[in-house]
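Appendix B, Record 12. Input sequence as logged:
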Amino acid sequence: MEKQNLTEISTRLGESYLAWGRISKLDGVPRPRRTEVYQLVDKLFEIVYPGFWGRPAISKGDTPRITTENLAIAAEMLTKLVVQAQSFCPTPPQGTKYSSPGRVVADFMERLPDIREMLLSDVISALKGDPAVYETDSIIYCYPTTIAVTTQRLAHELFRLGVPLLPRAMSEYAHSRTGIDIHPGATIGKGFFIDHGTGVVIGETTTIGDNCKLYQGVTLGAASFPHGQDGLIIRGHKRHPTLEDNVIVYSNASVLGNITVGRGATIHGSVFLTQSVPPGCTVSSTPVELKMKNKCMAIGRGFIPEFEI
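Logged structural output:
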């Protein structure tokens, strides 16, 4: 292209940068780098799952030293990212104010032992709920539910502390790696297991009790959004489901809106649910109609075509 053409395009782009401020950030404030957010997540995984992430081998005798080193590195990384996130998004949600980065980091670090206890319950739940696994090592090392749920539990603490940008960036990192989309605002009890996991969506105001299990393709979403007189969505309302303890939701079910699925209920696959369910109930859809074509005939457990000779 000719230099003149490039100059003209540059001028038009520059005008759009100034005119469309929502998709331009020209105040000179450095943003948190996505790669550094991802590095923080990996470092936190090394802390909560020592021996599975990070260093290839750790002995019990080295644990105190290595853990202290990792905590210091993670604290430094998080402090930098919180400072940048608060500067990049200088206006906190209405009615709130940002805590100091030091206070945020201290509160977050103090929560790590409790988060690890929750993660242990998640791993044990996976072991109990999946007949295809015989030990916990592969659950931690291989399963997408471990990446997605662990990241969400870490991100949820930062979300709870009012940190902008970082919690969602962390959750979307896990989403891109696993196909499991869990908003950092969702509240999830202990012993949570997502079997297979691909395509699972869990919305911001979802509440999940203890020992719940989801299968692939499940959506815990919103049915509708309230709008104000200005036509804009009213935020901050409970719009996603609540699952009480010991609920199972099978594959491709959609559970939508501010409804409650009672303790011990089971939602069968492909159900579209927009009303509350009493405790202990089973919800299923109308069975599909099976039609035989091409002169098929049933033999044993399968169907083979009947050919003319």
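Residues 162 and 195 are 31 Å apart (CA to CA).
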